[in-house]
Amino acid sequence: MNTQSLAPYRLLEFFVASGVDIPIGDEPVNRLVPAAPPAPAVEAQGGERTERRPGAPSPLAAPAPPDDAARTARELARSAPDLDTLRNLLETFDGCALKATASRLVFADGTPGARVMIIGEAPGRDEDEIGRPFVGRAGQLLDRMLAAIGVDRSAVYIANIVPWRPPGNRTPTPQEIAICLPFIRRQIELARPDFLLTMGAPATQNLLSQKDGILRLRGRWFEFDRGDAKIPALATLHPAYLLRQPAQKSLAWRDLRALKAKLDAPSA
Ligand code: URA
After folding, report:
1. Is the CB of 134 under 6 A from ligand 1?
2. What is the pLDDT of residues 201-243, one digit of tens each?
3. pLDDT in tens, 120-154
């Protein structure tokens, strides 16, 4: 057997075992060698600059410094008068590095204007492929959890605090979350739900300004300022966590019954 020809496969096996599951470029990059200075902009015939797709990341441009990116995110999000515009603005926004490694934006699913808006962490591989949140195994569990309280997925509005898949499904960094936060806040304002259900620590802590872990926060109601009104927000466990810790499903079940009670309350 030619062991040399096996070496690339061993390397691939090592990458897969380390959690690498997507290529992010066609050519390997030696990050130990200083980057070449940016090439001058190419002038097309007639003196016009060659155009990139609007919003497409320049392959050489360094990502915007986080403060700039966060400021741009706030300004863009604030300027969106409706959800379609917000989605289009996100498509053109290059301030979050996750966009460069994700296949596509995963904006939302379900019905804008629904009474309940559910917010998770970030798209996974299935969501990144399909372009809708919560369509993989965690999403299927979410559908069953909702069905258990008599709610169909199409009767809620679903999004994530970060709309691009982090490589290898890692948790988004605080910086990535901070940059994306103005967009999800605006999405909530524009979708105008009566109730929020935050699933998992990142959505709960960042949207509801909490520091405790999710096992302390779950089951508690908080107030979320939707802009025009303060609405109740319930923290619960993330379905992906429940897939790993099925014994905790009873806690999530308790939370969903609390949500259902609010939905059915005459004053709600
Ligand atoms: N986990 C999330 O938090 N969001 C998704 O869309 C899928 C899995």
Report:
1. yes
2. 999 999 999 999 999 999 999 999 999 999 999 999 999 999 9
3. 999 999 999 999 999 999 999 999 999 999 999 99
**CA 252 and chain centroid, separation:** 21
pTM for the model stands at 0.79
Question: Is 109's C-beta closer than 6 angstroms to any atom of ligand 1?
Answer: no
Q: Token pair 């070496």 is at which residue?
A: 7
At residue 10, φ and ψ (nearest 5 deg) are -60, -40
Q: Is the CB of 255 under 6 A from ligand 1?
A: no
Q: Show the 3-state SS of 187-250.
A: HHHHHCCCEEEEECHHHHHHHHCCCCCHHHHCCCEEEEECCCCEEEEEEECCHHHHHHCHHHHH
Distance (angstroms) between ligand 1 centre and the Cα of 106 equals 10
What sign has the CA pseudo-torsion 253, 210, 268, 192? negative
Phi, psi of 234 (to 5 degrees): -105, 135
Tell whether the model's pLDDT for residue 89 goes beyond 90.
Answer: yes
CATH code linked to domain 66-264:
3.40.470.10
Residue-wise pLDDT for 142-192, tens only, equals: 999 999 999 999 999 999 999 999 999 999 999 999 999 999 999 999 999
Are 183 and 120 in contact, with CB atoms under 8 Å apart?
no
Tokens of 78: 């604030």
Distance from Cα 124 to the centre of ligand 1, integer Å? 6
Cβ 121 vs Cβ 112: under 8 Å: no
CA of 134 to the centre of ligand 1 (A): 5
